[in-house]
Amino acid sequence: MKEGMAMAETLRVGLAVLGAWWMLAGHVAAEEVTPVEKVLSNPSAFHRHDVVLRGGLKLIGEWQGKDTFGMPTCGSIFQLDDQTGEIPVVYIIRCDPSERQRVNGLAVGRVSVRGNVEAQTVIKMNSGMELRTRVMATNIRREEK
Known about the structure:
Layout: H1 2-29, H2 36-41, H3 43-46, E1 50-66, E2 72-81, E3 86-93, H4 97-104, E4 110-118, E5 123-124, E6 130-131, E7 134-142
């Protein structure tokens, strides 16, 4: 009798763990996509928050600067359009020509951008362009068709 109860308890705990894992896996897989319009309607509410955006990218500029240690940084500046609006996306990378070419090649088709919204500071580009509300990308990947 005790053996049967122990087995039932083990099965119950195992099913509870499996259920928790299943819910967590479903939550991670279904990342919430934020419309650009929502970010632009109240940028300060999204300041320093992580977001996932989806849309088309267009390369609009190059970034060259230095990090906090004075080391050179490079990157691409894109305009992301998701049908609700457009927002600049800055993607800082290594100063390597092949890496820049790979990143710039993302400006074809639909992409998913994970990044951090920056709404309080202004970046002034050498071209005179000012970027106010923008997404500092941590990951850009092509969407499967």
